[in-house]
Write a structure and sequence with these properties.
Blueprint (H helix, E strand, L loop, with lengths): L10 E9 L3 E5 L6 E4 L12 E8 L6 E4 L18 E9 L3 E6 L3 E6 L12 E9 L5 E4 L4 H18 L3 E2 L7 H8 L3 H13 L4 E3 L2 E3 L5
Parallel strand pairs: 8-10
Antiparallel strand pairs: 1-2, 1-4, 2-3, 4-5, 6-7, 6-9, 7-8, 9-10, 11-13, 12-13
Helix pairs in contact: 1-3
C-alpha cells in the first residue's frame, strides 16, 4: 500500500526498514522513512515485519514520528455514529471474536467472524457499515449492508455471476455454505434471501440442478 501521503493523526501498517540506536525506521513508500522511537514501541519490533502505527508529533523536535500505542489516540465518544452508516475501515488485528478495525480514522470497532465474507489481513482498508453501538460505546461492524438494501446488492451479485457463466450456475439451496462463500462472497442465508427475491421478481429460475436466467431456460 502507498503510504507516501501520511499525515498527523493517520493510522497505517508499515514495515520496519531498519533498526538503529534511535529506534526503528519504517518504510513509508516515499523518500523519507518514519521513526518509531523505542519509547513508542508497545513491544520489540523486528526488521522486515509490519506493524500498526499512528502518526504523531514528537514534542521535542516537532517532527512526525510513529507510535504503536495508537489506541490512546482513538475517540471513545461514538455519539456521532449511527447504525447503518457507511464507514471506512482499517484492519488492525484479529482475535477469536473476529477482526478489529479503526473506523473513519477515529474510532475502533469489531467485525464478528460470522460477518466476514472475504479474506482479510492486517492493514486492509475497506468499506463497512455500523451494525450496532452498544451501551458501553463499543461498535459492532459489518462489511455488507443490512436489510432490503443488502438483499438488493446480493441479488445484483448473483445476476452478474450468472451472466459471466452464460446464464446458468450449478449452485442453489443444495450447495454447501463454503461453496456459496467461495463463488459469491456471501453467506448461505444471504444467498437464499437474494435468490428468493430474484425468483419472486421473475429474474431467475430455480431448478433442481441450479439457478438460471429466464432466457436461458
Amino acid at each position: 500500500m502507498d503510504n507516501i501521503n501520511l499525515r498527523y493523526g493517520d493510522f497505517a501498517y508499515l514495515k520496519v526498514k531498519e533498526i538503529t540506536n534511535y529506534g526503528a525506521f519504517l518504510d513509508t513508500g516515499g523518500p523519507k522513512d518514519l521513526l518509531l522511537p523505542f519509547s513508542e514501541q508497545a513491544k520489540k519490533v523486528e526488521q522486515g515485519k509490519g506493524y500498526i502505527i499512528a502518526v504523531i508529533v514528537d514534542e521535542q523536535t516537532e517532527r512526525p514520528i510513529a507510535t504503536q500505542k495508537y489506541r490512546k489516540y482513538l475517540n471513545s465518544d461514538t455519539s456521532s455514529l449511527k447504525p447503518g452508516q457507511e464507514v471506512d475501515l482499517f484492519i488492525t488485528h484479529f482475535t477469536a471474536l473476529g477482526a478489529n478495525a479503526i473506523i473513519d480514522n477515529e474510532f475502533e470497532g469489531l467485525i464478528y467472524a460470522n460477518q466476514i465474507f472475504k479474506r482479510l489481513k492486517i492493514g486492509d482498508r475497506l468499506k463497512g457499515y455500523v451494525k450496532e453501538i452498544r451501551a458501553n460505546g463499543k461498535i459492532d461492524l459489518v462489511t455488507k449492508k443490512q436489510g432490503v438494501e443488502a438483499i438488493d446488492d446480493d441479488a445484483q451479485v448473483i445476476l452478474d455471476y450468472l451472466k459471466t457463466l452464460g446464464g446458468f450456475a450449478a449452485i442453489g439451496d443444495f450447495s454447501e455454505p463454503y461453496i456459496i462463500y467461495r463463488e459469491l462472497g456471501m453467506s448461505k442465508k444471504a444467498f437464499k434471501k437474494a435468490i428468493g427475491n430474484l425468483y419472486k421478481n421473475k429474474q431467475i429460475m430455480i431448478a433442481a440442478d441450479g439457478i438460471r436466467l429466464p432466457n436461458e431456460a
